[in-house]
Amino acid sequence: MKEINPEKYLSAEETANRLDIQKSTLRKYAGMLDSVDTKKPFFYKDDTGIRLYTEEDISWLEQLIRIKNTPGTKLEEAVQSVYGLRYSSVTTHDTENYNALEGFSGVISAIQKYSESQMEIIQRQSENIDRLEALVEKLLHEKIEAEQKKLVTTKPLKEEIPVPMAAKEENQKKGFFQKLFGQK
């Protein structure tokens, strides 16, 4: 085994503090990374089986945390990504490009959240428009019904009963007293 150099390796507590996570979280992440390939452990362990971390290990754990915090990414997926990046033929330049793309993923995520909020606003506005259209239709229907009721309940004008022409002429020929007393 390698000889422990205090400047080269950090304890779990120091590493957890640097990453701003709990020791139990660090153990969980380290255990998941080590379990991907039991023949090729991700972290160095001393003779007593205690994991010790290098600056490079801390960089990989930071990468794991960033990937895990990407919306829609599960911890298992983040572990596989970090493991694949570490043991693939990825160059430093590729890793820098990945970090740059990761920065864009934050912007894309923010744009997606904004788009979702705008879609919710549009949906609510559409529902309000539908509700108002239904209200206007209801009010118009009620107004039409009220007008129809008015027309039905209004008394028709008195129609003049036609008086035969001969009777009109008779009334005109009679004198005042005749009309008054009904005599011919």
The unreliable regions are: none
Structural class call reads mainly alpha
Strand coverage percent: under 5%
Radius of gyration: 47 Å
Main sheet makeup: 2 strands, antiparallel
What's the CATH class label of the largest domain?
Answer: Mainly Alpha
Order of helices and strands: HHEEHHHHH
Strand order of the largest sheet: 1-2
CATH architecture of the largest domain: Orthogonal Bundle
What is the helix content? 55-70%
Shape: rod-shaped
What CATH calls the topology of the largest domain is Multidrug-efflux Transporter Regulator, Chain: A, Domain 2
Look at the structure and give the mean pLDDT: 79
How far do the termini sit from each other? 152 Å
Number of H/I helices: 7
| Total number of distinct structural domains | 2
Total count of strands: 2
Short summary:
The chain contains 7 helices and 2 strands; from the N terminus they run ααββααααα.
